Amino acid sequence: MSEQIALTDYNNRKIELLPILLAQQLVLLPLYFFIPIWIAILNSLVVILVYLGNRKKDFIIPAWIKFSITLIAFFGILLSFHKVTGRDAGVALIAMMYGIKILEINSQRDVFVLMLLGFFLLLAGFLFDQSPIIAIYQFVAIAAILNALTSIHSLKPTAQIIQGSSASTLKQMLKYFVLAVPLMIVLFIFFPRLSGPIWKMPGGSSGSTGISETMTPGEISSLQLDEKVAFRVKFNGATPKTFEMYWRTLVLEQFDGLTWSRGIEATQKPIDDWKNKIAFSDKQEGKLNNRDATYRYDISLEKTRMSWLTLLDRPTNIPARSKIYSDYVVKANRRLTDRTRYKAESQPRLTLNLQLSESDRRLNTQLAGNGNQRSKNWAVQQRGKFGDDRAYIHSLLTHINRQPFFYTYTPPIMARDTVDSFWFDKRRGFCEHYASSLVFLARAADIPARVVVGYQGAEKNPLSDYWIVRYANAHAWTEIWFQNEGWVRIDPTAAIAPHRIEERSQVDYSQRQSLFGDFGFEAVDLDNIGWLKQFQFWMDRANTGWNDWVLDYSRDRQAKLFEGLGLEKLNIQQISIMMIAIISLILTVISFNWVKASTAKDPFQASFDRLMAKLAKEGVEIAADKGANELILELAAVDDTGKPLSKSRLCQDSIAELLEILNLYVLLRYQQKSTTNKQQKDFHRKVKALKIRSQTIS
Amino acid sequence: MPVGDSVKLEQRSTYILPTRAGLLMFGVIFLMMVGATNYQNNLAFLLTFMIVSIGLVSILFTFRNLQGLSFKKGAVESVFAGELLQLVVHSTSQSNQNHMTIGVGFNKNDIYYLDINSNNAGQFYLPIKSQERGWLHLPRLMATSSFPFGLLRVWTWFQFETPVLIYPKPIEPPFETGQGEADEGENNKMAGSDDLYGLKSYQSGDPITRIDWKALARERGLFSKEFVAYQSQDLVFSWNDFSTTEDELKLSYLSYLVNEASKKNYQYSLVLPQVKLEKNSGVNHRQQCLQALAMYGLNRGNDL
C-alpha cells in the first residue's frame, strides 16, 4: 500500500521532465519543416542540455548559458528575417521561444504555461500546411500534452500511471478523444462564423491573376501577371475573333459589401434537361439566336484543383461527366487535379433567360444592406434621367470613357465602401473594380446584373493550330439583364479610353512559352476514363470531401447546411443555443451512464453486504475497515482445546458454513480475473440459504 | 453534505471550479479562436474546438475521479487535551475504477494525497489538534481532486458523526496525594506478564515467546524472561484531595495521577463526586478512569 503525501510535499515533488520534453518536441516537430533549420538544431541542443542536466543530481544550468542561448536565438531570427513580424518570422520566433522555454521549468506553473501554449503552437502549423496528415498528427501532439499534464498530477512516476504500461496510457488518451471528438464536430458545425477576419493580418494583400471562387477588388494592391498556361484550345471549324473570346468560368451573384461570391442558390440548381431547354429556346427565340455563330472546340485545361470547367461563353453543348447550372456555369463531377481535356460547343450570341424568375431577379438585384450609399443615391438619380435600362447602362459606360478612369494593376486599397471609393474618388483599378462597380450601379437602379469571371482573349500558337490562354488572360466582366434581350454581356473595361490604360498592361505577352507545350500532352479525357483513373478520382473525391467540408466550411456552407436541415429561419443566437443544447445533452448522457455504472454495485459486493447484515443481526460486530480476509482469520481462530476464540456466540456449524462462504468470496472476488454470471448467482444463493445460529446460552 | 461514520461521495454537493491553469487554458483558447478567425483557417478552428472539447470532457473525468469513493472513520485513539489526535480515514472505491491523486483534509491548504485503486483500500492519517477535554466533534472533511489535467478542481465536504473523547490535560499536582507512595517491595511481587523483572533459566512449559533470544544469541544459554505485576498498596485518587482548586484543574491533576499510576502498573481507584471506579490496573481500567474524568460534568446523552 502506498503512503499518503502531504500537500507541501506534493507541490514540491521533483518534476518529471521526460513527458514534458516529449510533448514539447512533438508540438514543435511539424513546425520544423517550415522554419529555418538552425532553430530546429538549436532547440535540439537545448533539449539535450536539459535532459542531461536533469539526469545529474543538483545540476543547474548556469544563468549565463541560458542568457547566451536566448541572445543567439533572437539575433538569429533578426538575421534570418530582418524583422519579427509577419507570418514566417512570427512563427519562427514563437517556435524558438517555445523551444528554449524548457530551460526555465522550475515549478508546476511553468509546466502548465509550456504545455497549454503548446496548443497555440499546434495552431501555427496550420498556417503552413492543411493536409489531412498534419491534422491527424495533431492528435499525437495533443495526447502527448495531455500525458504530460497527467504526469504532473500523478503521485506515481509517469511510467506507472494507470497501472503501468504505455498501452494503457494510450487507451486512456483514446478515451478522452472518443468523448471529445463528437463535441468537436458539433462545435465545428454549429459555432457561428464571422465572414471575414477580425483584423487584417500583415502581408496578405497581393493578388495573382487566375480564377478564384470569390472576388474582393478592394483588397488587392498589386496584381501579378502570371504567364502560366491556363488552358489550350483547338477549334474544329470556325474560329471566333479574339475580342469575341470570352471564356466563361464562374458567375458571381452574391455581394456582401466587399466580396463577390457564387450565390448559394445557384449551386443548387443544375439543369437536368438542358438539351431540351436549348432546343426549346431555339424554337421560341429562333430569330434571336444566330445559328451561324456556333463554335466546336477541344479544351485541354491545366489542373485547377477546382471543379469548374472553362468554356467559350454561352455553351450549348457541355462535356461528358459535367453539369451545367442555371447561371451557365459548368462543373465537372470531380476536382480537376490533372490536366483535363474535353469537347464542347458554344454560341456567343445565345440568348439567355428571356424570362427571369422572381428568385433570380431578387438574387441579382440584391445589394449588401449598408454601405456605398453615395453610389446607390447617384444610381437612382441617374436612372431617373433615362427612359430605359439600356440607355442608363450606356450612360455609365460613357461615364467611364469620359471621366478620368484608369486601368492599372496597382490600384489603391479600398477598405470600405469600395464602390463609392472607386467610382467617385480613386478611379483607378482593373477589371474586377470595373465589373464590380458596374454591377453595383445597375443593381442600385433595380436592374438585374451579375459578375462573370473567366478569361478573355487567347493567342495563337504560331507553330500549331491551337490557341493558348494564360492566367494573365483572367478577366471579369458583367452580364446585365434587359427586357426582351435576356442576359447581355457588357465589358466595362472596354469602355476605358485607350490612353488611360497603363502601359504595363498593354505589353503584349508575346510568345514566350508557346513554343513549349503541345496539344498532344497526356491529359485525362473526360469522355474516356479507365478504372485506375476512376480509383484516383475516388481518392480525390475523399480529398474533395476534406476540402469541401473541412477546409472550405464557411459561413455560407454553414448557412447552406442549416437550410438543408430546414433550419434556415434560425438566427445566430438560436443556432448558438442549439449548439449549447446538443453539447449539454451529450455531456449529460455520458455522465448519466457513468453515474449509473458507478452506483451499480458489484454483484459479489451486494451479496457480501447481505451476509454482513445477517451477521450483524446475530450480534457479530464487524469493524468498518475489516474485509473478508480479516473476518476469516477471526472466525477461524481457535484456542488449544479447539473452541473458537471469536467473541461471538455463533455455533460451530454456522462458523464452518460461514468460513466456506467467505473463502469462496475471496476466491471469486480477488483471485479470479473474471467470473461468470452463474458463479455470481450460485454465490448469491448460498448467502441467501445460509442460516446463522447462535449458541444457546446454557 | 454527507454525514455519518461511513459516507459515499455522490454527485450532490460536489463543487467544481477551474484552477489557475484552467483559467490560463481559457486564455489560450481565446487566442486560438482569434487566430483561427483572423486567418479563416478551418483546421485552426477544428483544433480550437478540439481543445475546447477536451476541456469539457475533462469536467466529466475530473468529476468522476471523486465519485463513487467512500470514506469510513477508522479507530481513533483518545488523547489528552493539547495533544495531536490522529484520525484514520479508510477510503475505498465503490466503483470499479481507479481514483488517482485523491486529496483529503480539513481545508484546502492541509491536504493529504493518495491513489485509491478499485481493488484496494487506502488510509489517510489526519492530525487534529485537540483543544479541551470532553467530546471533540470532528471538523468537516474535504475530499478533492484535480486529476487528470489539473485544469479543474473538484471538491466536496463530508463529516464524521461520532465525536472523539479527549482526556483532561495531565498536570502534575503540587503535592503528594493518595495514601502514600507505593512501596515496590519484593514481597509484593506476583508472577505476571506486565513488567520485565529478570531472567530465569528456561524450563519446559514456559511460553516460547518469553525466551530471551538476545541472551541465546550471545550463547549464554536458554533463559526465560520473567515478568511481574507489582502489587502495590492501595492508591486512591479522589476528587476531594484537591478541595481548594477549581474543577478543571482537579480533573487535570487526577488525569496526571491516573496516567502515571497506569504507567507504573500500580493498582488504583478513582473517586469522583458521582462516580467511583474500584481498585484495579491495566489498560481497560486506565481508559475507564480517563473517560470518567473526560466526561465529568458533561451530559453524554445531549452530546452524542
Whole-number radius of gyration of chain A?
38 Å
Q: Percent of residues of chain B in beta strands?
A: 25-35%
Q: Strand-residue fraction of chain A?
A: 5-15%
Q: Averaged pLDDT of chain A, please? A: 78
Percentage of residues in helical conformation of chain B? 25-40%
Determine Rg of chain B (CA atoms, Å): 30 Å
**Multimeric status of the protein:** heterodimer
Number of strands of chain A: 23
Low-confidence stretches of chain A: 159-164, 201-208, 506-521
- Judged by helices, strands and strand pairing, the structural class of chain B is alpha+beta
Q: What is the terminal-to-terminal distance of chain A?
A: 45 Å
Measured by residues with Cβ under 8 Å of the partner chain's Cβ, the largest interface is: A-B, 75 and 77 residues
Overall geometry of chain B comes to elongated
Give the integer mean of the pLDDT values of chain B: 79
N→C terminal distance of chain B: 19 Å
Count of separate structural domains of chain A: 3
Shape of chain A: elongated
Order of helices and strands of chain B: EEHHEEEEEEEEEEHEEHEEHH
Strand order of the largest sheet of chain B: 2-10-9-5-6
